[in-house]
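wait is this the right file?? whatever heres the structure
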């Protein structure tokens, strides 16, 4: 087999492969003999059709099939001889097999760009200082307070009207406009904006706690801005069965509360702990932002083409991720008002950045001989196992089976390369500039939250 490689452009090559007829002839003859034994033609007994007739009738199909087989069998080894890694299946430009002649085929295919990275040390990078967002600290404390909140039975003989925080268990029958409503064991907290039917909580204001065990029919207009458009302006008439009521007990944010969490001896210490957590998270985010700016600068300094197939695969992966995120929120893509093609179009710039960043970082890693050893993989697996409360050996086996171990190694290597680049960069600490006011022309980013 003789091969020649032609470079069409930075990301596309053409290979020419020539195989002598002497290597092909035995396979061609064998296929004809197999057909001769199977052929059923009028005037001939099975297996007795003359070889010349078999070749005349079926020779072209045999040659075409054999040509496809040979291309499939030889293409990979042919490009490997020239140290090329094909990204796509070969596109056959020429490849007609003629009896008695050497088989020659030309095939075009995409390849990764050859990158010689430059100017990747001493890069100026801005990293903003970590800050503590008080609202995030408050949210963590509120979440911990919610965990400790209890629904307690009311004291016997309680006669007051229901108020915010009381939680009723209700049976509901009735109509909303012309829509039937029927629900059992509905949990309704007075004053909660996430109630089953918008406005029901307000409609129950003033209900005495002694209503437990009784029924009552009410008519009210649901909260308009929180109800389906086709039901707006329509009244609800419901028969409510009051099965149970409990009182919400919210712990005070004090030293006793802090001790109950098991995380601190005083509320001040608990808040300081959560402040440190928020600061650490913000510091990690600031570091990620700085690394992204570093990569953006490197891509500006190192221009290169990217194979379209690589970008197409990344776009498809991003679209698939977006659709899965929507599914987790019980949202279908058509509910966002966008088609898959439109989502793909908006994902393309980020996909192109991801592909170029990966290729450039990989090239830098090769130049600097940055590799991942098994000790680093073991350490990361141990960390993951602890986070997931899993056995590390079982986790390794599962990830290896699902090809996730290769992805983990790639992620570790990429972080190692970025660690190296940041260590060689000229890092300055400075806050983010004040963002410019948004305008109607500002492009919107596609996110599952935006879809809702």
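ok assuming it is, sequence goes like this
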């Amino acid at each position: 087999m003789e091969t020649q490689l032609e470079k069409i452009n930075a990301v596309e090559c053409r290979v020419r492969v020539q195989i002598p007829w002497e290597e092909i002839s035995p396979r061609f003859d064998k296929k004809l003999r197999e057909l001769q034994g199977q052929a059923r033609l009028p005037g001939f007994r099975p297996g007795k059709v003359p070889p010349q007739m078999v070749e005349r009738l079926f020779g072209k199909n045999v040659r075409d099939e054999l040509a496809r087989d040979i291309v499939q069998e030889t293409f990979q080894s042919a490009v490997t001889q020239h140290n090329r890694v094909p990204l796509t299946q070969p596109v056959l430009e020429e490849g007609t097999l003629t009896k008695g002649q050497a088989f020659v085929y030309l095939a075009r295919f995409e390849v990764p760009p050859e990158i010689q990275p430059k100017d990747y040390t001493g890069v100026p990078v801005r990293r903003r200082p970590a800050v503590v967002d008080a609202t995030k600290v408050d949210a963590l404390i509120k979440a911990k307070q919610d965990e400790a909140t209890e629904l307690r039975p009311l004291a016997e003989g309680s006669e007051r009207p229901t108020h915010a925080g009381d939680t009723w268990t209700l049976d509901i029958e009735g109509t909303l406009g012309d829509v039937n409503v029927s629900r059992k064991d509905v949990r309704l907290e007075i004053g909660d904006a996430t109630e089953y039917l918008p406005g029901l909580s307000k409609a129950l204001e003033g209900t005495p706690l002694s209503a437990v065990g009784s029924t009552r029919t009410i008519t009210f207009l649901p909260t308009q801005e929180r109800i389906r458009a086709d039901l707006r302006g329509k009244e609800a008439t419901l028969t409510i069965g009051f099965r149970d009521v409990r009182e919400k007990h919210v712990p005070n944010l004090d030293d006793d509360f802090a001790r109950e969490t098991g995380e601190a001896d005083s509320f001040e210490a608990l808040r300081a702990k959560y402040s440190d957590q928020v600061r650490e998270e913000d510091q990690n985010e600031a570091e990620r932002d700085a690394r992204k700016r570093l990569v953006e600068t490197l891509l500006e300094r190192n221009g290169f083409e990217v194979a379209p197939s690589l970008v197409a695969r990344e776009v498809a992966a991003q679209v698939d991720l977006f659709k899965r995120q929507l599914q987790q929120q019980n949202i279908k893509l058509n509910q966002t008002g966008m088609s898959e093609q439109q989502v793909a179009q908006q994902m393309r710039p980020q996909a192109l950045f991801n592909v170029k960043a990966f290729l450039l970082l990989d090239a830098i890693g090769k130049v600097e001989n940055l590799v991942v050893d098994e000790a680093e993989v073991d350490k990361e697996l141990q960390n993951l196992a602890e986070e997931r409360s899993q056995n590390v050996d079982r986790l390794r086996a599962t990830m290896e089976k699902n090809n996730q171990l290769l992805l983990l190694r790639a992620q570790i290597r990429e972080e190692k390369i970025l660690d190296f680049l940041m260590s060689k960069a000229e890092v300055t600490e400075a806050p983010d500039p004040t963002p410019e006011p948004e305008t109607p022309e500002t492009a919107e980013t596609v996110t599952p939250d935006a879809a809702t």
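The chain has a mean pLDDT of 88. so i think its the right one actually
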